[in-house]
Design goal:
- Helices cover about 35% and strands about 15% of the residues.
- The protein is of the alpha+beta class and about 240 residues long.
- The protein folds into 2 domains: about 5-105, Ubiquitin-like (UB roll) (Roll); about 110-235, Alpha-helical ferredoxin (Fumarate Reductase Iron-sulfur Protein, Chain B, domain 2, Orthogonal Bundle).
- Strands 2-1-5-3-4 form a 5-stranded mixed β-sheet. Strands 6-7 form a two-stranded antiparallel ribbon.
- Helix 6 (about 170-185) packs antiparallel against helix 7 and helix 7 (about 190-200) packs across helix 9.
- The protein binds FE2/S2 (inorganic) cluster.
- FE2/S2 (inorganic) cluster (FES) binds next to loops.
């Protein structure tokens, strides 16, 4: 029976070099501060209980996106998740999905970054815009990309998507939101090239509209809305 001033972290462990299969390990720690975050709990384990625990983090402020993991049934940022808000004195933590596990909560994000690279995440002048000089935007034009540029590439949407789980080459919600970010930007002149990227068998038409991506995004972004917007743009501009 656990005391009220303690919390149990039930953490996924797996070292591919040493373990035949993954397992969960329980760690009990003091829970005397209402503002204890899941990331602080993981650091407590690493610093005081088991320094072999592997996980990723950097900014500790919900900005870099590196501490995303599956916490009590949902993909979220560990640094942004208060243990007190989970309403359970057991915190069960698994790594991000659909990526190889390097150790414990630390995954190889190469497949995710390859998808990001594939969408050409930078402004391109295309044939319609000058290649030099400033490309001026009105405040209204800028407002169209205001929300889209907030993606922190944490991979919560990627991990929660059932289509990404079953189709390795499916570009997935992160790629679609970020391609929409450039399609919606008047400083970019490569709309046709970008729409062609998402208008194939691994593109937007494979989305099953499950909305998991929208539900888990820690920045309240809407990849499902971006997918719908890209579909409309494809119909208007390509077909
Ligand atoms: S550590 Fe940067 S978002 Fe959590």
């Amino acid at each position: 029976m656990m005391r009220k001033d303690t919390v149990c972290f039930n953490v996924f462990r797996f070292h591919p070099d040493n373990d035949k299969k993954p397992y969960f390990q329980k760690f009990e720690m003091p829970f005397t501060r209402k503002d204890l975050t899941v990331l602080e709990g993981l650091y407590y384990i690493q610093n005081r209980l088991d320094n072999s625990l592997a996980f990723r983090s950097s900014c500790r402020a919900g900005i870099c996106g590196s501490c995303a993991m599956h916490i009590n049934g949902k993909y979220r940022l560990a640094c942004n998740t208060l243990v007190s808000k989970l309403k359970s004195n057991t915190v069960t933590i698994r790594p991000l999905a659909h990526m190889p596990i390097l150790k414990d909560l630390f995954v190889d994000m190469k497949p995710f970054w390859e998808k990001y690279e594939h969408i050409k995440p930078y402004l391109m002048p295309g044939k319609s815009l000058p290649t030099t000089g400033e490309r001026i935007q009105s405040p209204g034009e800028r407002a169209k990309v205001d929300i889209l540029i907030d993606c922190i590439l944490c991979a919560c949407c990627h991990s929660s998507c059932p289509v990404t789980a079953s189709h390795e080459k499916y570009l997935g919600p992160m790629a679609f939101l970020n391609i929409d970010r450039f399609v919606s930007d008047t400083r970019d002149g490569a709309k046709a090239e970008r729409l062609a990227i998402v208008n194939d068998e691994h593109g937007v038409w494979r989305c099953h509209t499950v909305f998991n991506c929208q539900e888990v995004c820690p920045k309240d972004l809407d990849p499902s809305g971006s997918i719908a917007h890209l579909k409309m743009e494809i119909v208007k501009n390509i077909n």
